[in-house]
Structures are given as C-alpha cells and as structure tokens.
Amino acid sequence: MQDVKVGVIGLGNVGSGTLTILAENGEQIAAKLGFRLRVTAVCSRSVAEKQIPAALGNVQRFTDWRDVVNSPGVDIVAELVGGTGAAREIVEAAIATGKSVVTANKELMALEGAGIWDRAIQAGINLAMEASVAGGIPIHTVLREGISGDRITALYGILNGTSNFILTEIEKRASDFADVLAEAQRLGYAEADPSADIDGFDARSKLALLAALAFGERITPSDIYTEGIRRISPVDFQYAHKLGHTIRLVCAARATREGLLLSVRPALIPLSTILASVQGAYNAVWVRGHYGADTFYYGRGAGPHPTGVAVVSDLMRVAREIRSGSPGRVSPFAHEELAEYKPIPITLQTRAWYLRFRVKDRPGIIATLAGILAEKRVSLDAVLQLPSETKTDLPFVITLEPTNEASVREALEKMSALDFLTEPPLALPMETAL
Q: Which position among 5, 99, 106, 206 bears the catalytic label?
C-alpha cells in the first residue's frame, strides 16, 4: 500500500522527539498500519543545524513553512511550532491546501480549535491534537472515545509539570519558591520567563481543551478563574501536612446546577487522595462519570519522547483515515457541535478554606480576625500556630467551615486594611470532593 507522507514544521524538543520515534520505530508503526509513514519534508529556521535521523532517508529541508504546506509530496502537516502567530497561519494554510493537520499546540487549539475543526470538516480533512495536553497521557482519546458513553460530572487535573515540580520540591526540601524556581530553570523545566507556567496560564489552556471534550462547551481560556503558585511557601506545606493535606495547582471542572464551574488555582488536597501522590514534572487527570464513576490517568506531561509518542499516534490515526477514506471522522472535541459556555463566577462555590496570615504579633489579633469572619457569616473551624522564632513576621493559619467564596473574599478585603499584617492573607480552598 502506498506510503502516507508527512511534513514536520518545528524541530524543537517535540519535533526532534517525533522524528526520532518515526525513525527508530518505523518498522513497528508500518506493521500496525499496513503501510509506512514517511517523512518527506521538515522545516525550521535553523534547519541546517538540525540532526535529521539518517533512517528517515531523503528528507527535504526548508526554512519557510510554506514550502512544506504547498509541497505535493506531503499528505499530513505536523505543526509543532507552538504559539498563536505563525502556527495559526500554518494550520489555516494546510487546511486550505487540503492537507490534514496534527498539532501539539494547546494555546491555539484552546483559543480557536473549534472553529479550526469546523473549517477542517468543510475541507474534508482531519485535525488531531492529542499532544496538546499532558503529552504522555492519551487523555484526549480517553474523553473522546474511551469513556465517551459516560456523562462526565467532574474533572480534576495536575496539568503543568513545571508548577508541580516546584511545589513538590518546596514540599520535600522546605526551600523557598524563588530558589526552587531557579533550579527548575537550570534543569530546563522552567523557561527564562516562567510566568505561563507558574501563573497558571499554560494549565488554563489545557483545562479549556479538556473541559470542552468532557462537557461539550466552547470555552474561552480567559473565562477560567486562574491563580498561580508564586505565594506558596514551605510554611504552607507544614500547615497543610498538619491538616492531613498537601498543596497542588489543581485544574478543576465541575458540573453544577448553575452551570460549569472552572478554575485553575493552588488548593489543599487530602494526602489520602491519588492526586496528592503526583510528584515532580508528572501530570495526572482524575475524571468522575455519572455511570462509570472514577477513573485516573497518569504520566509525563511533557518531554520530547512522551509528547512525540502522542504526535506519532495522531499521525497514525490520521494516516489510517486518509488510506481508508472514512467519512466518519470523530471530532477532536468529542462532540458534533460545541455549545456556548456561559461563564459562572467562581464565588458561587462552597468550600472549606485555609487562610494563612503573617503578622506583627500583638494581643487581640485572633479576636479581630474572628470578628470580621463572624460579621461576614463565616464560621471559623480551627486556629493553628506552629512554633516560630520571630514575632515580627509570625505565620499562623485559620481554617474555615465550608463557606461561600463570595463571603470569604469580602472578609479578606476587610482584613487587608489591618495594620498588623505583613502581607495580604493567603486563601486556598480545601478540595474535599476528590
């Protein structure tokens, strides 16, 4: 059977990992498909400096992506550039020329993926994006096909390996955030500008995609409530452990009576839960179905080979369709048509809360804080204070009974004006539904 020809645009970590797998695993891929996936063209601005595996044979090298997209010797374009600038042009041009597209681009797919899929359908080609979320976990396939017969009621994930590495290193070593971030940058886990990871924006794009698959709604990432991890300190893990919890950057999507509630934020989760055991740069997704109950998916969230496996698997799926001419394409968003998401405020959720204060110690502090909480009809659960050598920057924690987030925010706003605080209070929800 005739080969299916692939053009790879972008030869960074993911692109290089993809080429390695196609070269080293080519025989097994061909045995599974019944034909070969053949790389005929690659593109990078620095393509002359790139090592292309010799096993791939004669591969054309280009510095302009248009040469790949317009090549008659390419059936599938693998867009592995990232971002929303050139990547959008590449994907749109590939669709316009009748070429199927495989992408690892979470940002572009979260922002415009549903519209891109509509255009792909009209053009009669396929679009696949498994590598866009949690590279080493086939979570798209799970939601799109594996458990598509269920009705999802909740999805929780650890979707950013950089943040998870930082949090678990703070937890294990009691090191400050800045020190662990610097180490993550030295090890290559964090970029020179780490804001997309540590401020939650990378995870937000991934949650937007997974929530679309799970709940069938077209979600704009900016509609998702997002907080990062910059303020988490070793003392927070000390108190969390006293409470039988740990802290993770949790991506949450829950179906409620009011609508779909979405958030990316650091939260306390019980040490007894499976998500609490996710360490380092690993990702995990926990899904609750109405009929199938709980399922859990775990693996590396990034890296040349885990993400490359996802790209190659997508290439194989798309190649099968090209060869079979199947008209029954499954939407990468798992639904024939996505409904419009109507954002609901995060303040509607009711949770137990962890409030961490740092204060200049003096009499009456607890009474003052308790008075504000009572005024806002917030019930105090417990006060915890570990031994401390300083009284000028004394940390302690108040936990709250399950409370409406709007009331907690009102209390925090009033507390922020108190002159004994050395910094604003840190408020983290305590996730008990896991």
A: 206
